[in-house]
Amino acid sequence: MTLLELQRRMAGAIMAPLGAADHLARAVDASAGEIVKPNGRLTSSERLEIYARSYWYRILDSLFDDFPGLRAIVGARAFDKLARAYLAEMPSQSFTLRNLGSRLTEWLSRHPGHAGKNPALALDMVRLEWAHVVAFDGPAEKVLGPEDLLELTPRMTFRLQPYITLLALEYPVDDLHLRVSELAEGHGEASNAVLRHKERRAVRRFSLKPEAIYVAVHRRDESVYYRRMDAGEFQLLEALRLGKPVGEAIDSVFGESDLPVDELRGKIEGWFRLWAEDGWFCHPGGESR
After folding, report:
1. Torsion-angle region of residue 42: left (phi > 0), alpha (psi -120 to 50) or beta?
2. Cys staple from 259: which of 35, 85, 147, 264, with CB 3.0 to 4.6 Å?
3. What is the pLDDT of residue 200?
C-alpha cells in the first residue's frame, strides 16, 4: 500500500458516517487493523474511533452553530438526525467548515421529511441562515459610491456586492432568527437543555402564519443585517442584480404602476441613494478590494 493509498483509506474511514451509539460502522471497524496499529491500551478500532468521532462531532457542532433557527424549528433531536443524514449524503468538499451548509437548502428541499411539521418555514430559515454565512465573510468588491451615480442613464448596469443575498420569503423568519440568536448569546452557563427549552418556547410564541416578506441580507461595519423592503424595491434590485439596464429594470417593475410620476421618481431615487450609501453596488469589472 502506497502512502497516498493509506492516506485515502484513513480519510475515508474517518469521514464515513458513524454507526450505532457513535461507534465505527461495521465495514470500517472490520478493516481498522489494515490502516491503524493497536497499542498497549487500545485496539486498532478504538484508536481509529477516536479520530472518527472527533471529526464527526466537530462538523456536527459547526452545523449546530450555523443554523440555530432551523434547530429551534425542528427541535434538537430532529436537527441531530437531519445533520447526520445531510452530512452522510453531502460530505464536506472544502478545506473550511464555513462551506459545510452551502448545500443544505437544496438537500432539505429534496428531503422534506427532515424539515418538521412546516417544511416551508424550515426552508425559509435555512435560506436566511446560509445568506447570513455568506454576508458575514463573503468577498467584497470595489464600491460604487453616490458620486458614481450622479448621472444615471437608462443603459447603465450594476452589480451587487457578492456578499448580498436577496430573499423572497413566505414567513418572517428574520425576526425568529434574531430572537433565537439572542437566546443563544445570553444563555451563558445555562445547560444546552435549558437553551433548547427556550428556543422551542420562542418558536411557539412566534407567529407561524405565512407573511410574505422581502429581505436583503448584507453586512456593514463587520456586522450582518437583515433589511426588509417592499415588493417594488426588491423587484427592482433583483432586476438590476440580474443585469438589466436601469431603464429596462424600472420599466419591468413599474411600467404599469398607477403611482404619480413624481412620487415614483422620488421612491426610486431614494432607493438608489440608500443602496449607494450602504455600498451595495460594485464596479461592473469586478475590481476586488
Report:
1. beta
2. 264
3. 64
Of 8, 62, 6, 52, whose CA–CA distance to 29 is shortest? 52
Q: Which three cell numbers stand for residue 36?
A: 491503524
Question: CA-CA-CA-CA torsion for 105, 106, 110, 116, nearest 10 degrees?
Answer: 0
- Residue partners of 234: CB distance under 8 A and separation at least 6: 166, 168, 214, 216
Using CA atoms, how far residue 77 sits from 80, 84, 191, 244, in Å, is 5, 11, 16, 45
Please give the sequence-ordered ranges of beta strands (E in DSSP) within the chain, or none if there are none.
159-160, 165-169, 213-220, 223-229, 281-282
What is the rounded CA–CA span in Å between residue 46 and residue 23? 9
Average pLDDT in the 19-42 region? 93
CA distance 18 to 56: 8
HSE-CB of 271 using CA atoms within 13 angstroms? 21
Average pLDDT over the chain reads: 89
Q: Which of 72, 55, 154 is nearest to 121 (CA)?
A: 72
Task: Look up residue 61 and give its three cell numbers.
Answer: 457542532
The position carrying cell 445555562 is 190
As a whole number of angstroms, the distance between CA 81 and CA 2 comes to: 36
Least confident of 92-96, 200-204, 222-226, 228-232: 200-204
Burial of residue 15, with CB atoms counted within 10 A of its CB: 0-12 exposed, 13-18 middle, 19 or more buried: middle
Q: For strand 159-160 and strand 165-169, is the pairing parallel, antiparallel, or unpaired?
A: unpaired
Phi, psi of 246 (to 5 degrees): -55, -50
55 within 8 A of 18, measured Cβ to Cβ: no
Q: Are 108 and 114 in contact (CB under 8 A)?
A: yes
Q: How far apart are CA 167 and CA 228, in angstroms?
A: 10
Q: Which amino acid is at 96?
A: T
Residue 41 pLDDT exceeds 50: yes
Q: What is the DSSP string of 112-131?
A: GGGSTT-HHHHHHHHHHHHH
